[in-house]
Amino acid sequence: MQTIFEKSVLGRSQYQLPVAIAAEIELGEGMTRSMLDLPEVSELDIVRHYTALSQRSFGVDTGFYPLGSCTMKYNPRINEAMAGLKEFAQFHPWQDDADSQGTLELIYRTQEYLTEVTGFPGLTLEPAAGAHGELTAVMMMKAYHLDRNDTQRRKMLIPDSAHGTNPATAAMCGFDTVEVPSDAQGGVDLEKLKAVLDEKTVGMMLTIPNTLGLFDRNILEISKLLHEKGALLYMDGANLNAILGAVKPAKMGVDVMHINLHKTFSTPHGGGGPGGGFVGCVSSLVPYLPAQRIVKDGDSFRLDFSAPKSIGRVRAFYSNFGVIVRAYTYMLRLGKEGTKRIGRYAVLNANYIKARLKDFYNIPFQQHCMHEVVFNDEKQTQYHITTMDIAKRLIDFGYHPPTIYFPLIVHGSLMVEPTETESKETLDEFIDAMMKIAEEAKVTPELLQRAPHSAAVKRVDSVKAARNPVVVCNTCCT
Question: Measured in Å, how far apart are the chain's first and last C-alpha atoms?
Answer without folding.
Answer: 37
